[in-house]
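Quick note —
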Amino acid sequence: MNSIQPSSSRRQFLRGTLGAASLAALPTWAAPLGANGDVRVAVIGFNSRGAGHIKSLLGIKGVRLVALCDVDQNVLDKKVAELGSKDIKVKAYTDFRKCCEDPEIDAITIATPNHSHTLIAMTGIANGKHVYVEKPVCHNVWEGRKLVEAAAIAEGKGLVVQHGMQRRSDLGWAAAMEYVRAGNIGKVTLSRGINFKARQSIGKVDSPVSPGANGRIAHEFTRGGKPQSVNVDYTLWSAPRPVMPVQREQFHYDWHWQWPYGNGDIGNQGPHQLDVARWALGNPKLLPKRVMSLGGRWGYDDDGQTANNQMAFYDYAEGAPLLFDNRGLPMKDMNWAKGYEPVYRINGKTSAPRIGNVIHCENGFVAESKAYDNDGKAIEKFENFQDGPDHMKNFIESVRVGKIIKDELHVSHGYHAAALAHIANISYQLGKATPAAEIRERLATDKAGLETFENFVANLEANQIDVAAEQCAVGPWLDFDPVSEKFTGEFAEEANKIAKEEYAAGFELPEIA
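Predicted structure written out below.
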């Protein structure tokens, strides 16, 4: 791709006089590559999900992996050496800003911790890059809307901004959605997302680890006897959050369960199921008008802050409601050895997926790859349920033509899925300990919600948790204006504060024009 870039001397002048944020506001927009041009891609963040990005990209014809970026020097050096042994030479970056400025890169994929997804995505857009950003595409509601607005501007300039919701590229789910839309089992009455995934304690440290005078953390973390040696530029890792000491036994991954960086499992695995649940409702263009969430962190005392068991209830202005059910404990007795999570039974009969979706309709339901009647008899099977193996390929094809090749790939769907997690977490964070009997009263008119809550409590009790002593934190029903995307009503002030976070100096979101 031959995008026009400022000369080196002029770029240095701009950097010295305007600052990084102002420079980011001076993009050089990309042009479509066409069918024959190689797409030059950089992967930013690859200690976990990003490793899958690398594997996918290397398997797509006409793609050249030209750069890697990671703030952990150990992770970066290891992967560069591994690729080098296969005769794949890549540039190595620790600073995402410098990576995004590189004129020899056409597109970036982002799989860093949640809190930096939007910042890096918008920095890529500001530098004329096509962007693929993993779930959740944002860490809070405010920045997610900013990303969608930036993507709209980028689209007018021939740039692609795609989410990492792989199910949107899945042929099996597309067939299931078409089956539901055709009314084969009547109108949708409830869209349910489920995530039952065992999550053990992340431990509790005696004292936190702070960066050295050079802003780096070079330390060997240990959890469960497993060492994790890191050499991290912690200022870049923290961006856009203010630098705070590391309060966890394991540096990588366990940030998921701490509010400044992660969003709990409802914002980790949850966006995949929330996205499918919203898809089943016909992709509402606006967020719900009301949300309520309850839950807790049960079974251990550790440095995690997010709920390990959580329910969320969503009411849209029109159509059926949405229910999300997350469980992080084993089936019973806090026994992790077998690795079994509980199973929710639809109408007390048919096993729901431990991780997946159920679309309840008037005359039956869809549970992942099959449709059933109300008695639980399978009446239709949807083929090609493969979790969207061509999702990255679809991104590359979109890059080639300079526009999203189908609406389902648009980053706005990723935003809605993430925002559903965020607004539920806001209700949960405003919650108060509430007796189970009172919760049952609140859910008395919601048959499915009450049945699910009873199953939720039964799982806690099976794990020897006394719900009378360790009560659920129950958030208020929050009224939400889906047009302004602001909370209204009694708890609006507190809720709207959580919906936008603090951004560290020098790591504010760039202006896109």
